[in-house]
Write a structure and sequence with these properties.
This protein is α/β, with parallel strands linked by helices. The strands form 2 sheets. A 7-stranded parallel beta sheet has the order 1-10-9-6-2-3-5, sandwiched between helices. It has a 3-stranded antiparallel beta sheet with strand order 4-8-7. Strand 9, helix 7 and strand 10 form a beta-alpha-beta unit. Helix 1 packs across helix 2. The radius of gyration is 17 Å and the shape is globular. It binds 2-amino-2-deoxy-6-O-phosphono-alpha-D-glucopyranose (GLP).
């Protein structure tokens, strides 16, 4: 696992957006007939990345016409029109501002009559595209990836998930600060769905994620911190900021700063 430490949130997003753009442009140059398959998260962490990708798209530096996306998760019971559905979040913050064809966008339907069938079809569709080239993700304060809460199997596949009280409290900031208004269930890709991707890139920033970063980087493979599954992936990156490094050992911090110094954005 490669840990790329940047000075702050903006530099972390700058690095990640460039990394994603390079991957798409490189893929399109080599296989123009095959779409680039991109996994995407919601949350505050990716917003700076989405902003930069939109700017780059408008400036003609990257195109999403040949990109197919699969989102990580969606609340159960929120229709598309609900402003806190992940469908609405993704369209407001990303898809409505880039040149991606709507038919290339895949988001789990939390209103499906048969939720299990919806999840099985999602896995089948990912397989139909030959798997995911790059999965971008974030982390919960408790180290969850997508909606795979602590103790979810590290080989889990797309399915229905119960949200913990902690996650409902963390996400209540989007629901009038009332955890009761946060849906209790979600559909989510599995940890195994993410780690099957050819590349995984997680964004971890801020003091409140420092323990999750420490457990993931120094704590070994552990089902209590589902992001730690990245340790078993042979092409996984964590892009983080200085604030998220607050709990790392000094020698761990120095090690990653040193070996990836060429990735550091100055200024
Ligand atoms: C939710 C999402 C996760 C996301 C997490 C952290 O739980 N299901 O995919 O990583 O929130 O969000 P934020 O980036 O806002 O801290």
């Amino acid at each position: 696992m490669k840990v790329i430490i940047q000075k702050d949130y903006e530099n972390m997003c700058e690095w990640a957006a460039k990394h994603i753009m390079d991957a798409i442009n490189d893929h399109n140059a080599k296989n123009p007939e095959k779409p680039f398959v991109l996994g995407l998260p919601t949350g505050s962490s990716p917003l700076g990345v989405y902003r930069r990708l939109i700017e780059a798209n408008k400036a003609g530096k990257v195109s999403f016409k040949n990109v197919v996306t699969f989102n990580m998760d969606e609340y159960v019971g929120l229709p598309h029109e609900h402003h806190e559905s992940y469908w609405a979040f993704m369209h407001d913050n990303f898809f409505d501002h880039i040149d991606i064809p709507e038919c290339n966008v895949n988001i789990l339907n939390g209103m499906a009559e048969d939720l299990e069938a919806e999840c099985a079809a999602y896995e089948a569709k990912i397989a139909h595209y030959g798997g995911i080239d790059l999965f971008l993700g974030g982390s919960g304060v408790d180290g969850h990836i997508a909606f795979n809460e602590p103790f979810t199997s590290l080989t889990s596949r797309t399915g229905v998930r119960d949200l913990t009280e902690d996650t409902k409290i963390a996400n209540s900031r989007f629901f009038n600060n009332d955890p009761e208004l946060v849906p209790s269930k979600a559909l989510s890709v599995g940890v195994g769905t993410v780690t099957d991707s050819r590349e995984v890139l997680l964004l971890i920033s801020g003091h409140n994620k420092a323990r999750a970063l420490k457990e993931c980087v120094e704590g070994g493979l552990n089902q209590m911190w589902t992001i730690s599954a990245l340790n078993m992936h042979n092409n996984a990156y964590i892009a983080c900021d200085e604030l998220a490094c607050g709990e790392l050992r000094v020698d761990t911090y120095k090690y990653f700063l040193d070996i990836y110094k060429s990735e550091r954005i100055e200024g």
